[in-house]
Write a sequence for this structure.
């Protein structure tokens, strides 16, 4: 099974790919992120793959995500330099592999092997015509051409083997183009200039970010992953690059995450704002407007990257699965579920955006008011929902009320600061009713149940949001009891399960610890002012985990599980870093010093936003 923690993500335009340290492309969907995978060896040793036969990894770049990835490969005494990128090209998208010798010497012939398709579409049947090998692939009801450009090709065992002449000091390209025009300009120097331009632009963005003091490299990684998982035509952020990587090896916990959840669009908006990237924050918020428009946010938690409904979930036969984990699923059953946490996170994202200098435009205000008005209805009873974990059966979940409270609380804060003439009486009354119901549900052990009336009550890590978002004040003794109780019952080292892993949730197998909740625990501890404990937990997480994060981890082996990379994991890590940074400053300078820092940061970021929107 490929090690998920060793993968590198490259993204650009409408597509992305995952590479092993030896530059083998194990996952690539094209021309769009949610198209049928062309390379999918992540899910089966016999799946589609692009690789260099006979070469071993000599050295590989360690950045977890970016526009390109650099690898040095060794074959005998020859060192080959490979730079991989995914770029829009000729009206479509291309995986560009730039090759050159790492040291002066005679020119060499490099062999490259490619096997495409065969999972959710037919295997590519290549035809050879001189320097071009051509095939076609079908996805989402359309057929697109595939071209492989190199010096020469031959067919062998269902693969196309391509030959490229490489030298030191000059790039030779191998290009796999999907849905591109036939007459591509593929001169090595020109393609290298495109790659360098994209890399320079990305470095400038990351260098300009305002990173927190604890583990700034992790915050930079989070921003890089976020940007690589962005579908550039619309600004949608996919939850993850992959489908059907298991949460419990050998069982049925496999799902398709190549879509845009309101939760992830919201977290992306907040994280980009916190890290000083107003342009990115506006882009992610813009997709919310584009995708959800005037419709209800409560019954459409997920859309495809174009803002359309997600395809129905179905199973695909013919793949062995990562770790023999089947079924392989495409599409997602969360479409049409009811969730209240996602609108809450959206309101939190808008408030964070405004806190760091963003402007409240009329469209966003209308969205805030509409969601708050809808949430303020029926406050006297808990409403059934599928919840943050997207349970297949609706129930009166406590996290639903936490999300409803968050909508109303942040809407009130936004209205006070930016639309003070707005009538807010119904919002205040509904917020009080919902908050009382949540807090009255705290049991004698200090914990909240997963759902109201649950017998016996099941602890749920989502209850940490009560502390992290301020429903319980930091000096309320119930806050510390709740956090300690969750950590004691769901903790495993620095990791945290989302609920008891042996509990029944409709699927089979013991899943791993949930990384977003592991980082939310750091946020909750820092919010309580327990800075040293938060630092210790965060240091343990960062010291144990690789830079590219999946959804879950096996606490005993350290093996990553679930779809990779998960944007939610990186977003919660970035938020934990920011909250811990603020808590450290408060501990050192007091409340007044923290307020001065926040004001200074607000003015600095507001100035940056004004400059970014100047004509």
């Amino acid at each position: 099974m490929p090690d998920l923690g060793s993968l590198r993500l490259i993204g650009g335009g409408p597509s992305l790919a995952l590479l092993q340290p030896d530059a083998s492309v194990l996952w690539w969907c094209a021309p769009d992120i949610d198209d049928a995978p062309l390379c999918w060896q992540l899910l089966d040793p016999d799946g589609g793959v692009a690789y260099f036969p006979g070469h071993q990894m000599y050295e590989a770049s360690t950045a977890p995500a970016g526009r390109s990835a650099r690898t040095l490969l060794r074959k005998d005494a020859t060192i080959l330099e490979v730079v991989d990128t995914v770029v829009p090209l000729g009206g479509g998208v291309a995986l560009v592999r730039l090759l050159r010798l790492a040291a002066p010497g005679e020119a060499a012939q490099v062999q490259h092997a490619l096997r495409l398709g065969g999972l959710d579409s037919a295997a590519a049947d290549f035809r050879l015509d001189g320097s071009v090998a051509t095939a076609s692939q079908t996805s989402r009801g359309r057929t697109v051409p595939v071209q492989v450009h190199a010096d020469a090709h031959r067919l062998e065992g269902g693969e196309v083997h391509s030959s490229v002449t490489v030298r030191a000091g000059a790039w030779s390209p191998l290009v796999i183009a999907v849905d591109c025009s036939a007459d591509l300009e593929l001169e090595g120097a020109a393609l290298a200039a495109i790659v360098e331009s994209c890399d320079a632009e990305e470095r400038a963005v990351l260098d300009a970010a305002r990173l927190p003091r604890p583990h700034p490299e992790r915050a930079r990684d989070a921003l890089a992953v976020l940007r690589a998982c962005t579908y550039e035509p619309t600004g949608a952020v996919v939850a993850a690059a992959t489908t059907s990587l298991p949460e419990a090896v050998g069982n049925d916990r496999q799902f398709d995450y190549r879509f845009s959840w309101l939760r992830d669009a919201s977290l992306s908006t907040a994280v980009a704002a916190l890290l000083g990237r107003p342009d990115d924050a506006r882009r992610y918020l813009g997709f919310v407007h584009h995708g959800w428009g005037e419709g209800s946010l409560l019954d459409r938690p997920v859309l495809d990257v174009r803002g359309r409904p997600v395809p129905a979930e179905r199973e695909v036969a013919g793949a062995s699965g990562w770790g023999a984990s089947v079924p392989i699923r495409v599409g997602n059953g969360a479409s049409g579920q009811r969730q209240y946490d996602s609108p809450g996170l959206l309101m939190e994202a808008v408030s964070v955006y405004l806190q760091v200098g963003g402007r409240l435009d009329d469209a966003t205000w209308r969205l805030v008011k509409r969601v708050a008005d809808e949430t303020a209805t029926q406050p006297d009873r808990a409403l059934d929902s599928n919840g943050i974990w997207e349970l297949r059966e609706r129930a009166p979940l406590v996290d639903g009320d936490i999300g409803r409270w968050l909508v109303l609380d942040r809407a009130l804060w936004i209205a006070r600061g930016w639309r003070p003439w707005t009538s807010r009486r119904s919002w205040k009354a509904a917020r009080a009713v919902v908050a009382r119901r949540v807090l009255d549900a705290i049991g004698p052990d200090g914990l909240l149940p997963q759902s109201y009336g649950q017998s016996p009550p099941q602890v749920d890590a989502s209850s940490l949001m009560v502390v992290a978002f301020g429903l319980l004040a930091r000096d309320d003794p119930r806050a510390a009891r709740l956090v300690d109780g969750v950590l004691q019952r769901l903790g495993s080292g620095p990791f945290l399960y989302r609920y008891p892993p042996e509990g029944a949730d409709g699927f089979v197998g013991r899943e791993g610890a949930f990384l977003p909740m592991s980082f939310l625990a750091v946020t909750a501890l820092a919010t309580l002012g327990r800075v040293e404990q938060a630092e210790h937990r965060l240091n343990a997480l960062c010291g144990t985990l690789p830079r590219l994060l999946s959804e879950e981890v096996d606490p005993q082996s350290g093996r990553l599980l679930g779809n990779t990379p998960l944007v939610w994991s990186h977003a919660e890590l970035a938020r934990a870093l920011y909250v811990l940074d603020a808590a450290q400053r408060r501990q050192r300078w007091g409340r007044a010093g923290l307020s001065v820092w926040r004001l200074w940061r607000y003015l600095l970021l507001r100035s940056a936003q004004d400059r970014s929107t100047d004509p």
